[in-house]
Each structure stands twice: as structure tokens, then as C-alpha cells.
Amino acid sequence: MSPFNENGKVWMNGRLVAWKEANIHIASHVIHYGSSLFEGFRAYETPPGTAVFRLDGHLQRLYNSCKMYRMDVPYTIDEFSRAVLETVRANGRGSCYIRPIIYRGYNTLGVDPFPNPVDCAILVWNWGKYLGEEALENGVDVKVSSWWRLAPNTLPALAKSGANYMNSQLIKMEALLDGYAEGIALNIRGHISEGSGENIFLVQNGAIYTPPLSSSVLPGITRDSVMTLIKEMGMSLIEETIPRELLYIADEVFFTGSAAEITPIRSIDKITIGTGKRGPVVKRLQEAFFSYVKGAREDTYHWLTFI
Hints:
Layout: E1 9-12, E2 15-18, H1 29-33, E3 36-38, E4 41-46, E5 49-53, H2 55-68, H3 77-90, E6 96-104, E7 118-125, H4 135-138, E8 140-144, H5 164-177, E9 182-186, E10 192-195, E11 199-204, E12 207-210, H6 221-232, E13 236-239, H7 246-249, E14 252-257, E15 261-268, E16 271-272, H8 280-293, E17 304-306
Parallel strand pairs: 8-9, 8-15, 12-13
Antiparallel strand pairs: 1-2, 1-7, 3-6, 4-5, 4-6, 5-17, 6-7, 9-10, 11-12, 11-14, 14-15, 15-16
């Protein structure tokens, strides 16, 4: 991945600051205890101008995450939405990746987070294809990770928290060191959960399967978008518990996510999936998805917010 361009602006607690001045104190609670909730989504260039994809859905999930962690956000969703648009505009971006983060800041240290302020920031940068420039067409090689996803009643899997991504890092690092692009985690019952930072879908015998949220799955906004497109196309969508071995005999398997978008998987644990190439279902979904996000198709679902 390319290093950051440090010439931009970052929105912090209601004002724009220079990128290199967007700092927090080393004694901030978030650094010691992982007390952050965040989002990640993209803006795309379209014929009418730059548009943020599913801004409302991402911010609602962010505020839901904060609610689970008893973190009162000092801005309304509408105010935060305007701040996102302001940040993209201030950085002069066309297409970009957007990262809002809400975290416990600087006051005192201890497991009790309540004495610390709730701070907010938004940064944007240019981020290419998350799993590689050729991944959308050629697919990626992945493995089933030895690391499980979070067990119920430990950390809330429905929250997009920084702490949860320590688990994701273990999955990702193991995969990379073993020569794969990504890992697939199972839940504590041994059923398919998701990738380190992506949801997962399988295609078999004309039906499309995806694990339910009860399989320790983040409620992905791109996941939801793809499920909508599947129904729009008249295809069969089944949301149910999926055994690991179904991965190997599926006709197609693919990841979804704001960073990964819709990325086909060509092999799992060195077992070729389908023909080992991007399948027809993934190709159709990619074409439909990108036609919406790039403004080539009428925005009937109101997914785009223009800058």
C-alpha cells in the first residue's frame, strides 16, 4: 500500500487541521485500551460529480457501534454527515476512502472509560484496490485461518471497533506470512464467519449463500448492497449457517466490503474454486455495483450523496 499524502486536511472535533497536526496525546485512553469505533467507505467520481456511497448507512452503523459501547457522540448524525462532506471537499478529492473515527481521548487512564472525553475525527485518502489492482478480475488466493472470530458475549461483533481489529490483524498477518492474500475466519462453532475485513458469499447451484449476523459477522454496508442487487436480479439469496467444507465445493466464492468492494476468490487452502477464475455471478454483481456507485445507473436506492 502507498504511504499517505500528508498535504491534506483532517477534521477533528469540529474543525479542519493540517494532516501533520492531527495528533493526540500518548496518554489518550484509545491508545491504551482500544476504545475507538470507526467506519470506512468510499467516494466515487460520477458524471454529476463526486458522490459518497451509502453515507447514511455507514454513519448509522457508526452511531450504533458507539451506543453499544455507551459512548455519547457530541454531534448529531446530520452534523457528522455534513462534516464528512466538508472534509472530502476540503481535500479536493474525487474518488477517495473516508475514515470517520470516534474515540475516548485524553484525561485519565484506567479501564473505566467514562472520565475521558469522546473525540471525533474524519480523514480521507486515496486508497486503491484493497486486495490488489488485479483482484477484481483475477481473484485472490485465501486460506481458512487458525484464528476464530469473536465469541458471542465477549466483544460485540456487530460493532466496528478498533479492538475487534486486533483479531483481524492476526487473521491477516497469518494469511500474508503463509503466502495468501487474505484469511477466512470461522466462528466458535466452526462455521464460516467472514474475512479479516470483508464479508463473504458463496454461489452453488444457482443460489447465493452468506452467513447470518449470528455467525459473528459485521453487518456490512456493501454486504447489504450486494444482497439488494442479488434480489434485484431475481437470484436466490439464502442467509444461513454455512459449514467450512462448503467453501471448497462452491461454484464461486467472493468477498464484499467498502475496501474490497466485490472481490472473487479463486482458491481456498490451495483448492481451486470453480474454474479458478472470476465466475459469471460475481461478474454480474460487479457490473451492477459499479454502475450504481459510478452514477451510470439511476440511483433508485438513494445510495449516493453528492459533495
